[in-house]
Amino acid sequence: MAIPNINQIVSGKNSIFNNQQKYFKYNSFGGGYNTRDNDSDVKDNELTGGQNVDLNPDTTISKRSGHVMYGNYLGNTTGILGLISHDPQGGTPEILSVYDTQVIRNSTGVALTGVTMTTNLKTDYSYFPLTSKTYIVNGTDNVVKYTSGTAGDQTDASFKKGKYIEHYKNRLIVANVNGQEDTIWYTDLGVDTFGVNNYMRTEGEITGIKVLYDRLLTFTKKRIYMTQNFTFNVIAGPEQFTPLKTDFGAIYDRSIAKVNNLIYFIGQNSKGLAGVYVTDGLNVTLISDIIRNDLNKIAPAQLVNACGTQWGRFYRFSITPTSKTTNTLEYLYDTTNNVWYPPYTSTGFSCYQTFETSGELDLYAGSQTDGRIFKLNTVDYDEKIDQTNIVVPDVHTSIDAAAGAVKRASQSFKLSVSAPRTMYMTGVALMLKKNAGTTTGLTVRIETDNAGVPSGTLAHASLTNTITAFTDTSYVWKTVKFSPEALQPDTTYHIVVQHTTEGAGNSQYYLGMKGTTSTYSNGIASAYTSSTWSNIADTDASFVIFTEGSIESFVDTKQFYLAPEGMKVHIRSMFVTAKALGDWEIECGVIPGTYLAYNSIQMNTSAIGSNWGTGVWGAMTFGSSNLSEQRLDFSNIRGRGMKFRFRNQYDNEPFTINGFTVRYHVISKFK
Q: Which residue, of 178, 230, 345, 382, is most buried by count of CB atoms within 10 Å of its CB?
């Protein structure tokens, strides 16, 4: 009779623990995002959770690119109501933005003269090559015609005041005119004037128009119509419109985008649930079913704010989740590989625009809540507003350059971060105006504190920049940007504004402030006269501080069942192959599925979310941009199914994960 070994003697039961070492390898993340299927149906290379990551063509995953503010901060009266790419033939391309009542030339930060828009109205635009002009409409105001220079033309009262405009067959097409929401108007051939009979009518309020090949697609909330081979200069009714085979349309024009000669848009079915659809102008297909659990959680009432665009091979759109009021989630659909990316988080975008500069095609987004425009897909991450005192100035402090009478102004502040974390400062916006004298520039510095006033010492050598000389005699927001630098928590710093040429000339600016009733609690304004700083009682400057906020980037794999039914596994260690751009950590988490002998696969699946708090975490440090393999040892992780998470929670720390290997052994139990 054989003598049993120690592993066969456990509490007097005939149990056998199989300690044979096994390895599980995973090196493909290219299947995309799947929130629809349970883990027994999810493909091995699909992700069941994630945020702020990109899936690369080589099937690796990496932290998503960020965004940085472009141009000047325009204020907080409205969000960005429209972004326009003015790209004239043979002329100079420009990006224009509509903010409050103005159309801004973003290359200069100056509003077009001769133009006044009704505030809070979203805009649409089209460039018409036959007149070399860009046309901007909002459904209420006279059309804005722009060719170049500092002024726009808004004198044409006969141009149809529609919400949507397109260039189609050498005519301008305008849809949804006030009182004629079901009507499309078109100009005469090659010009921007409308004949009295130049219209056609559909059924229902038009929510968008798009040109696809030689077809004009017209969207309402309930239907989509196709117009082809239309004979212009005749009045046409609904019979001219051929309905596509669908009982829904698009919620709003800004979600409609052409990508690779197909039209993508967000629609809402009869149950009120949102979906992402694609059409070739004849048929309509739902493409978002695999992420329906995500889209079922968006706020239906906010669908009118959704916006989308083409970004390379992607359809990229912003949408509002439940309990939010702004488009704080972005989704990407890879139209070539037909896969979804986990969502991006953002500060809330209202519109997109592509624009070419120096041969590079960049993507921009307008803020939904204030006057910021962001350049997307940069190294920087999530430029946020951390400290503000946005008020209408009722007092001011002078900034003088005159010899013997130099004056400076400052405002102290503390960032919201608490120890032990730091926060990166990226810029500051101030309300300034020109008062008198010759025109010279201003220098903005972030200085340390000395007994409640500026010390004269920069908090970091990079935290200084200049504001180009300007002649505005009314208060305007002026922005300076810094190379991001970390500021310490619970620490007072000062924004100092002074002349670039102190002691020369007689130039004078005013820094706008709020006196007596100022409510900013983390600082106070100060003035520098006669070589001495003094606080100004109960007064604070009007200012905005921009920072790089923390951004969590993570992905969850499917639940892998490493043990046969009736068994469980014990994870020993994990080997991760990855690289980073600096020496920082990538965190790895493991959640075991509940182990119950002989249960079915479905009953052994652990949900993500709160359960991650009970998982086991470890961290690996990668660096030097070289691909390397790091080992992480675990203990006491037992279960049948395992789900793995990789994340990074910090600022400006890009990484790429190529795959991982898990070393484990199977524990077998026999009755």
A: 382
Sign of the dihedral defined by the CA atoms of residues 643, 644, 650, 652, in that order = negative
Global confidence as pTM: 0.90
- Note whether 534 and 392 are same-domain residues: yes
Closest CA to 484 of 62, 68, 65: 68
Q: What whole-number distance in Å separates Cα of residue 617 and Cα of residue 597?
A: 26
- Find the domain containing 588 and state its range: 6-65+553-668
In a shared domain, residues 501 and 564: no
pLDDT tens-digit readout, 361-384: 899 999 999 999 999 998 888 788
Whether the bond between 454 and the residue before it is cis, its omega within 30 degrees of 0, is no
Residues 463 and 525 in one domain: yes
Whether 276 contacts 288, CB under 8 Å: yes
- The answer to whether 312 touches 260, Cβ cutoff 8 Å, is no
Lowest mean pLDDT among 29-43, 309-323, 434-448, 588-602: 588-602
Tally the domains of the chain: 3
Query: Which H or E run includes 293?
Result: helix 292-295
End-to-end Cα spacing for the chain: 21
Torsion sign, CA atoms 501, 502, 507, 510 = positive
Most confident of 172-186, 410-424, 553-567: 172-186
Collapsing DSSP to helix, strand or coil, 298 comes out as strand
Say whether both 531 and 401 belong to one domain.
yes
Q: Is 435 exposed, middle or buried (0-12, 13-18, 19+ CB in 10 A)?
A: middle
Degrees to nearest 5, angle at CA 161 with 156 and 167: 90
